């Protein structure tokens, strides 16, 4: 594992590391923010999953999260959004292939060989992080758009593993919207039954743990009515009795300006669960 | 003047505007952040000047300044760093030509036709901003690296025009370092006497107003000993009795991670002067 970047930030350190991933079969980068507290004590970890087209860079340069992580003593870990490299399958378009891993394990070729972002985020990356950095066992998970889908599905599929979960502008029902239909058909095949375990709205009914969901959604989001449809998750949560705090924010769009405006509240939410 | 971007941000609005600049003879973009207070009342303006290679985008996406501007009720105005366009002179290298205007008025060809960033920042842009947005007459100015040079020289050359000035990692003595020597030789010619009016360290001696300077400088800045040399400004301020607060920050580099870590303190400094 090699460090490719290191910057002082809000009294702590923003780093980027590169390593060979066995889950993905390629070299991967991830970012880690170490708050000032991590110099002296173990700290909980908040995993952040980014959206379509992003790498590990977008969140660490644009969200302004380090300030709040420093305030609350949280380590932030930010993976890339897909396997990468010249020998990794790709497709035209920003919403399939590299930059668009959808945090699942693909079962169809040419994707199945490398596209195992679920295994990477749930197993390999936390093991690596816990081996190299001063972490406690307390983990939270959050993300944006495709990464919000990732955070919700990963938390719902792994009861007990995360103490807190939140999302910005998540794709809550990928099986029912164009982004998800395109990606799932390619990665998982045409049988929609196989899609259900990667769809937060489907997973809510059978959740074995009622971990509260915190979601912020901009009402001026250009993808709100076509790709995001938070009302479908709300209906599923109401039906299942699953706790959901869905905050609709007038005027906010899908950009990092939205994330930056409310990331402080999300980090405070995670810190309350993780440091409690 | 046309708006090319608008995003809700921290209760206010982050916008980008495009207009035809008469000072520069080309189309220019600039960013303006309107804090929530600007919906109901006039607000002071803090001008931010960016460094080499930047456009109006870097500061607004990476510094996290909107949070603090919203807190203090400051409008932020962020111009591009040079004239732009296919018919605007340019040069190989990141440190001359487009993206490297150095906030001066060029006197040598091929630069003199368009490279008048000083006039643009001091006269044209404020007139435009004051005509279109709810501003008070209170103005501050700040910037990073080449933009720190711009903020210091513009404030020193215009007593009474700015109530506050600060800089991150500024080029304080451009006449004496490679970045400045290259740019000044091209824009102003080889006669070093003509360089003096664009050099903060030279301007300090003759300043007609003792406006206090606030400067943050990272001690791990990769350009500290070759291009920045803050000790030269300190010596000039001591000699002239000019008030300077120079804060050396151990571990911090030249990046936006440094700016983001301390922009809150700079905005509070400007707000105290501008809203007082």
Explain how this protein is built.
Two copies of one chain form a homodimer. Chain A has 276 residues and is an alpha/beta fold. Chain A is built from nine helices and nine strands. The first copy, chain A, has helices at residues 57-62, 65-72, 117-132, 146-157, 178-188, 200-203, 224-228, 230-240, 256-274, and strands at residues 2-9, 12-21, 26-34, 43-49, 75-79, 135-143, 164-168, 213-218, 244-249. In chain A, strands 1-2-3-5-4-6-7-8-9 form a nine-stranded mixed β-sheet, sandwiched between helices. In chain A, α2 packs parallel to α9. The model of chain A has no long low-confidence stretch (mean pLDDT 98). The A-B interface holds A 7-11, 14, 61-62, 64, 66-67, 218, 220, 249, 251-253, 255-258, 260-261, 264 and B 7-11, 14, 61-62, 64, 66-67, 218, 220, 249, 251-253, 255-258, 260-261, 264.
Largest sheet of chain A: 9 strands, mixed
Total helical elements of chain A: 9
What coarse outline of chain A follows from CA principal-axis ratios?
A: globular
Alpha-carbon distance between the two ends of chain A: 32 Å
The helix fraction of chain A, in percent, is: 25-40%
Give the neighbour order of strands across the main sheet of chain A.
1-2-3-5-4-6-7-8-9
Order of helices and strands of chain A: EEEEHHEHEHEHHEHHEH
Summed over residues and divided by their number, the pLDDT of chain A gives a mean of 98
The rounded Rg of chain A comes to 17 Å
Largest interface: chains, residues each: A-B, 24 and 24 residues
**Beta-strand level of the residues of chain A, as a percent range?**
15-25%
Per DSSP E runs of 2 or more residues, the count of β-strands of chain A stands at 9
Query: Which segments of chain A are poorly predicted (pLDDT under 50) over 5 or more consecutive residues?
Result: none
User: Helix/strand/pairing class of chain A, anyone?
Assistant: alpha/beta
Described by its quaternary structure, the protein is homodimer
């Amino acid at each position: 594992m090699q460090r490719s970047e290191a910057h002082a930030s809000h009294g702590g350190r923003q780093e980027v590391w590169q390593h060979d991933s066995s889950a993905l079969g390629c070299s991967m980068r991830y970012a880690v923010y170490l708050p000032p507290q991590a110099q002296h004590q173990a700290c909980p970890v908040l995993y952040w999953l980014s959206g379509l087209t992003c790498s590990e860079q977008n969140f660490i340069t644009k969200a302004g999260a380090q300030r709040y992580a420093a305030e609350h003593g949280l380590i932030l870990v930010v993976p890339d959004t897909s396997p990468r490299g010249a020998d990794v399958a790709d497709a035209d378009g920003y919403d399939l292939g590299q930059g668009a891993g959808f945090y699942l394990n693909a079962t169809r070729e040419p994707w199945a060989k490398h596209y195992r972002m679920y295994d990477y985020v749930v197993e390999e990356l936390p093991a690596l992080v816990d081996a190299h950095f001063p972490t406690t066992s307390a983990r939270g998970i959050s993300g944006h758009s495709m990464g919000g889908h990732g955070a919700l599905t990963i938390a719902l599929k792994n009861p007990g593993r995360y103490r807190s979960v939140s999302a910005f502008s998540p794709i809550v029902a990928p099986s029912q919207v164009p982004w998800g239909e395109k990606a799932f058909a390619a990665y998982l095949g045409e049988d929609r039954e196989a899609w259900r375990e990667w769809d937060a709205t489907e997973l809510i009914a059978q959740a074995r743990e009622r971990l509260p969901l915190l979601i912020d959604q901009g009402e001026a989001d250009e993808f709100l009515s076509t790709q995001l449809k938070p009302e479908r998750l709300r209906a599923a949560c109401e039906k299942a009795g699953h706790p959901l705090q869905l905050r609709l924010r007038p005027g906010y769009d899908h950009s990092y300006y939205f994330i930056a405006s409310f990331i402080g509240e999300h980090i405070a939410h995670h810190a309350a669960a993780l440091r409690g």
